[in-house]
């Protein structure tokens, strides 16, 4: 049992004190290294894996096809910035016991909260629509099936699983779905990659200051540091909390978050390197979707590479769409003070689950309108680009507030990295505007 001194300082955001263990849903993350490592990974690894959703795969594939190895340097730069952002969100939730929207609601003007949640909700719904379309298209390349049938089937399957399966069991399934990302590591080694060029482009890059480069950088940054991940990370940190905050929990949370973001960024690197080695070298500079990349890979890198790429799209889609819908539900429920938790049964949190159903339903309706998936991706990227830096600035202020976090405020290194990430997200559109 931890002493009172080790507990976080009380603050206005914390609800009534709960007995230790009442919120326990899995083994406590006292340490990130021990027997049962995979089981100890929590929201961080799922969040990082969900970052590589089908729309993200399409973005990374387009970057590799258009720029070749030229933008590989962005991966090691984005990793610490994405890690600092997610670590701050996780820290806020772990210490206060509340989700990000609830914390913003208590500390910021209501219009700020409403604007942020509205932007995130719209972007998430559009993103779900794009992911459903990509998954259905990928499935069609493996099994002959009508696109609409595939979209409807995936939407119903994912919504039913998220609503009917208790969170503690569902979270285990999400962790295992993370393994689908290994498909892209396999493709990286199947393709004929020029590792000398990879090394030079990663550690001694030559940057072209033109609009095309900054368009790709905006897309890469917006896909890697996405607002829905902020809300999901915080909400699931609360879901999996055991009510205790001590140095061991903070270290374990940090290790979990870093593992997740390292996974997400490494997969981004693998996809860009693979498409650079295959599509770009063959003169294919433009692709319209992730499944187009998989199709183009097949004659170049072999049927094995194309099949792995397609299976990866299906796996990460099953992982990321529940995260998108869930993050919307948490954000909206916290805004209006509704009861919210994936651990509750549908009748115990009707409004919360209604948001999930509505988000999936709207995404399904967008697909039935026949809107091209790439339009979804473009719109989602614009909305993420608008909301991400604003939310990051809010998170930066909250994570350094001693009235909220007490002795658990973000350390200087974390505050600095988050500030740099925020400035970068604000400045990229400016550089795009002034570039030729």
Write structural notes for this entry.
This protein is an all-alpha fold and about 425 residues long. It has a single domain, classed as Up-down Bundle (Amino acid/polyamine transporter I), CATH 1.20.1740. It has 19 helices and no strands. The radius of gyration is 21 Å and the shape is globular. The N terminus is likely disordered.
Key terms for this structure?
single chain; mainly alpha; Amino acid/polyamine transporter I
Using only CA atoms, what is the Rg?
21 Å
Structural class: mainly alpha
Shape summary:
globular
Largest sheet: none
Name of the CATH homologous superfamily: Amino acid/polyamine transporter I
Q: Alpha-carbon distance between the termini?
A: 61 Å
Helix content: over 70%
Beta-strand percent range: under 5%
- The fold-level CATH name is Amino acid/polyamine transporter I
């Amino acid at each position: 049992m931890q002493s009172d001194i080790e507990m976080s300082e009380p603050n206005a955001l914390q609800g009534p004190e709960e007995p230790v263990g009442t919120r326990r849903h899995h083994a406590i993350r006292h340490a990130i290294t021990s027997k049962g490592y995979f089981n100890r990974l929590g929201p961080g690894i799922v969040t990082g894996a969900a970052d590589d959703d089908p729309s993200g795969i399409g973005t990374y594939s387009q970057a590799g096809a258009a720029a070749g190895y030229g933008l590989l340097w962005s991966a090691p730069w984005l990793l610490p910035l994405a890690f600092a952002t997610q670590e701050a969100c996780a820290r806020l939730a772990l210490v206060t016991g509340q989700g990000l929207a609830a914390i913003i609601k208590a500390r910021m003007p209501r219009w700020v909260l409403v604007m942020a949640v509205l932007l995130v909700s719209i972007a998430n719904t559009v993103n779900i629509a794009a992911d459903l379309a990509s998954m259905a298209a990928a499935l069609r390349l493996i099994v002959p099936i009508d696109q609409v049938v595939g979209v409807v089937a995936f939407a119903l399957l994912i919504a039913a699983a998220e609503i009917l399966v208790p969170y503690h069991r569902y979270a285990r399934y999400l962790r295992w779905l993370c393994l689908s990302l290994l498909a892209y590591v396999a493709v990286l080694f199947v393709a004929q990659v020029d590792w000398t060029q990879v090394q030079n482009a990663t550690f001694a890059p030559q940057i072209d200051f033109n609009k095309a480069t900054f368009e790709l950088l905006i897309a890469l940054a917006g896909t890697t540091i996405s607002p829905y991940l902020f809300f999901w990370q915080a909400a699931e940190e609360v879901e999996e909390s055991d009510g205790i905050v001590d140095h061991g929990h903070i270290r374990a949370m940090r290790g979990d978050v870093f593992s997740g973001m390292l996974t997400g960024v490494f997969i981004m690197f693998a996809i860009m390197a693979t498409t650079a080695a295959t599509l770009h070298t063959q003169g294919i500079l433009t692709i319209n979707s992730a499944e187009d990349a998989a199709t183009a890979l097949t004659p170049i890198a072999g049927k094995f590479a194309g099949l792995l790429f397609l299976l990866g799209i299906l796996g990460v889609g099953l992982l990321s769409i529940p995260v998108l819908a869930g993050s919307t539900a948490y954000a909206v429920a916290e805004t209006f003070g509704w009861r919210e938790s994936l651990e509750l049964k549908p009748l115990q949190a009707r409004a919360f689950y209604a948001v999930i159903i509505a988000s999936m339903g709207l995404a399904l309706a967008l697909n039935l309108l026949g809107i091209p998936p790439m339009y979804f991706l473009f719109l989602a990227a614009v909305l993420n680009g608008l909301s991400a830096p604003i939310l990051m600035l809010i998170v930066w202020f909250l994570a350094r507030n001693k009235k909220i976090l007490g002795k658990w405020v973000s350390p200087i290194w974390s505050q600095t990295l988050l500030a740099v990430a925020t400035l970068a997200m604000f400045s990229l559109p400016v550089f795009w505007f002034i570039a030729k």
